[in-house]
Amino acid sequence: MTFRSSYSNGIRGHLKNVILSLIKEYHRVESQFQHGSIDKCVVALRDRNKDNVKLVVEDVLSHANVAKKNILVVQLIVSSFSFRLFT
Question: Domain range spanning residue 16?
Answer without folding.
Answer: 3-82
